[in-house]
Amino acid sequence: MAAGQSRSSNQLVVPQANAALDQLKYEVAQELGIQIPQDGYMGFMATRDAGAIGGNITRRLVQIAEQQLAGKFTR
C-alpha cells in the first residue's frame, strides 16, 4: 500500500486533518525511536510499537484539545 494511504475503516470527521494526523504519526514514531516502513505497510511492525505510537498520538490530541478548551474559557 502506498505511503499516506490507510486500510482503516475509520472515517475522519474532518478529512482535511488527514495530512496533519499522518505528520503527527511520523513525529511520534521518531520521538519513540520507532522506524515506520517507507512503503507505508505496517503489517510487519510489532504490535507493541504500533500501540505505543497510537497511545502517544491520543495523549497528544487530548492535550491539544484541553489547551484549546482552556483557552476558550479564560477569555
From TrEMBL:
It holds the Pfam family SASP. SASP are bound to spore DNA. They are double-stranded DNA-binding proteins that cause DNA to change to an a-like conformation. They protect the DNA backbone from chemical and enzymatic cleavage and are thus involved in dormant spore's high resistance to UV light. This is Small, acid-soluble spore protein C. It comes from Paenibacillus allorhizosphaerae. The lineage of its organism: Bacteria, Bacillati, Bacillota, Bacilli, Bacillales. The gene is sasP-C_2.
